[in-house]
């Protein structure tokens, strides 16, 4: 009819649409997040506008409604939000009005083809992501405060149409005519799942229509944005259970709000048990990043890998909703948030480490991961070291570096340690004999990472860390606590004979004060790697 106006998309929109639709993506489900976020924003804006103009008050039962229609093969997302005028439709949906999207679109264009799916998947491209699942989209909208309604329609192919429409109330309906391969978005259970996954904590009600009835799909409380005093332990736990495959009680719950230069709310958990999935496989922190409640990504690496056992949410005002991964990684606000969040977790650990029994549970689950921080995080090394716990030749249970130092003998300059694969083998190692006989304590290390971090740390409270399997340790200044053994007769001739027999297999054969009961012990050179490191290097084929 003559009332239909035909318009060309802005050149940038055409390119963006093309990129979005033709990039092969595995995450196209995020279109729902984008549409629901827009709908929720529109409702927030209407609520805000109603403060100054009674005419457009948001109805009390306003919600975002997601309605699949199997016969028509459409999915409709409706809201009672602020709505759009004809001009709004043309500007917002026909051009790239926002600099964020423009920059994102440029990033997308310059990204390698194989990187595009994850860019789109992680950050979406707002409204246009609808064309990932639909070959035709119509948007019918009525601006609050106006009687006029308009329908915008497009097949995402370079042009769109505008025509007059009717809508009883202010708000917007977005109708997606689904592509042949997008049937899954007609299933209420699938839509329900997506809302839970992407938008569960949006504060406006979201309903999925099932058998003609609206069913609430989100909980709608951004728990982390509430004051601590308003949240019960049960609510914390329910949230903790909802964010990961957690069935236990959290060992620690950290809930705080940063205000001032940085604005964010954080709700983090340290699990009470080790996750089934080994922390060795996945090294990235999965703490979720939200921007103004909307879930953005769980790949923002909000915490360093050595705190990857921490779970939860950080929600900030300081980032735009639509930000590409590259932009995210380089934004200074995110770097500052990371620092603040990491510092908070470390200081929480320091506080809780004072309760030896309580801390033990944490240590036994995540200690080996925390140790990685010593060689990965130069800056935090000093804070991490006192948080480490060890088995020891001198005490039962766990001990720490400060405790070790407080027990050091007069004249003892170094912190002694022994690394091996097997904790049990450590206790009876001949390497320990001479130390035990002189009352010198040795830390016993048997985690994977123990071969690496002591060299990196170097020293603690100015006491160097010394592997006792390295040569060059002189124990003669420490008196034996038991009987004094006699030097056996003919020892020099014996040593010379062994040396000749082994030839170039060894670099030296010597008498030692490191043994008491055993006859011989293998020792590493003074420089170079210790025995455990040599074993690892051999295993790695070096
Ligand atoms: P973004 O939401 O990140 O700004 P989009 O491409 O998703 O980008 O949307 C562009 C603009 O269109 C929005 O900023 C908003 O002004 C308008 N818009 C989109 N959906 C709606 C809606 N449901 N109600 C009102 N306005 C909307």
UniProtKB/TrEMBL annotation:
CDD domains per the UniProt record, alphabetical: HATPase_Hsp90-like
Any Pfam family matching the protein: HATPase_c_3
A: annotated span: 1-325
SUPFAM superfamilies: ATPase domain of HSP90 chaperone/DNA topoisomerase II/histidine kinase (SSF55874), HSP90 C-terminal domain (SSF110942), Ribosomal protein S5 domain 2-like (SSF54211)
Keywords carried by this UniProt record: ATP-binding, Chaperone, Cytoplasm, Nucleotide-binding, Stress response
Localisation: Cytoplasm
Record Gene3D superfamilies: 3.30.230.80, 3.40.50.11260, Heat shock protein 90, C-terminal domain, Histidine kinase-like ATPase, C-terminal domain
Job of this protein: Molecular chaperone. Has ATPase activity.
Family: Belongs to the heat shock protein 90 family.
Subunit and partners: Homodimer.
Name the UniProt record assigns to this protein: Chaperone protein HtpG
Source organism (scientific name): Methylobacterium fujisawaense
Taxonomic placement: Bacteria, Pseudomonadati, Pseudomonadota, Alphaproteobacteria, Hyphomicrobiales
Gene that this polypeptide is encoded by: htpG
């Amino acid at each position: 009819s003559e009332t239909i106006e035909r318009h060309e998309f802005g050149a940038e929109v055409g390119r963006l649409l093309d990129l979005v639709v033709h990039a092969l993506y595995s995450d196209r489900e995020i279109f729902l997040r984008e549409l629901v976020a827009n709908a929720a924003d529109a409702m927030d804006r209407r609520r805000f506008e109603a403060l100054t103009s009674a005419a457009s008050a948001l109805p009390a039962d306003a919600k975002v409604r997601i309605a699949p229609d199997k016969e028509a093969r459409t999915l409709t997302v409706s809201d009672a939000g602020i709505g759009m005028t004809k001009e709004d439709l043309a500007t917002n949906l026909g051009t790239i009005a926002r600099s964020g999207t423009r920059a994102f679109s440029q990033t997308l264009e310059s990204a390698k083809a194989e990187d595009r799916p994850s860019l789109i998947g992680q950050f979406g491209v707002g409204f246009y992501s609808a064309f990932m699942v639909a070959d035709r989209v119509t948007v019918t909208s009525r601006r609050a405060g106006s009687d006029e309604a308009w329908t915008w329609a497009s097949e995402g192919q370079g042009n769109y149409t505008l025509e007059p429409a009717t809508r009883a109330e202010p708000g917007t309906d977005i109708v997606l005519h689904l592509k042949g391969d997008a049937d899954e978005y007609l299933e209420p259970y699938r839509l329900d799942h997506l809302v839970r996954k992407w938008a569960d904590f949006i504060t406006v009600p979201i309903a999925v229509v099932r058998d003609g009835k609206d069913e609430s799909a989100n909980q709608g409380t951004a728990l982390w944005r509430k004051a601590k005093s308003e949240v019960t332990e049960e609510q914390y736990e329910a949230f903790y259970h909802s964010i990961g495959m957690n069935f236990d009680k959290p060992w620690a719950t950290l809930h705080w709000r940063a205000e001032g230069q940085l604005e964010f709310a954080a709700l983090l958990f340290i699990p009470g048990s080790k996750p089934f999935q080994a922390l060795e496989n996945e090294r990235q922190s999965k703490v979720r990043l939200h921007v103004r409640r909307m879930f953005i990504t769980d790949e923002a690496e909000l915490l360093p890998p050595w705190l990857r056992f921490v779970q939860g949410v950080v929600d900030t005002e300081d980032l735009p909703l639509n930000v590409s991964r590259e932009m995210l990684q380089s934004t200074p606000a995110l770097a500052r948030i990371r620092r603040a969040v990491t510092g908070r977790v470390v200081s929480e650990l320091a506080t809780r480490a004072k309760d030896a029994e309580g801390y033990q549970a944490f240590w036994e689950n995540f200690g080996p991961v925390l140790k990685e921080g010593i060689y990965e995080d130069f800056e935090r090394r000093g804070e991490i070291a006192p948080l480490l716990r060890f088995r020891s030749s001198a005490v039962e249970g766990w001990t720490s570096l400060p405790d070790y130092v407080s027990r050091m003998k007069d004249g003892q300059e170094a912190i002694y340690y022994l690394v091996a694969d097997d904790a049990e083998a450590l206790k009876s190692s001949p390497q320990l004999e001479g130390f035990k006989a002189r009352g010198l304590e040795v830390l016993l290390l048997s985690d994977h990472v123990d071969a690496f971090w002591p060299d990196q740390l170097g020293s603690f409270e100015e006491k160097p860390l010394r592997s006792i399997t390295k040569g060059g340790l002189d124990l003669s200044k420490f008196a034996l606590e038991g009987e004094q053994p006699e030097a056996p007769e003919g020892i020099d001739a014996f040593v010379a004979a062994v040396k000749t027999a082994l030839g170039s297999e060894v670099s030296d054969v010597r008498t030692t004060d490191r043994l008491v009961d055993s006859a011989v012990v293998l020792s590493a050179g003074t420089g170079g790697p210790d025995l455990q490191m040599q074993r690892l290097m051999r295993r790695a084929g070096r």
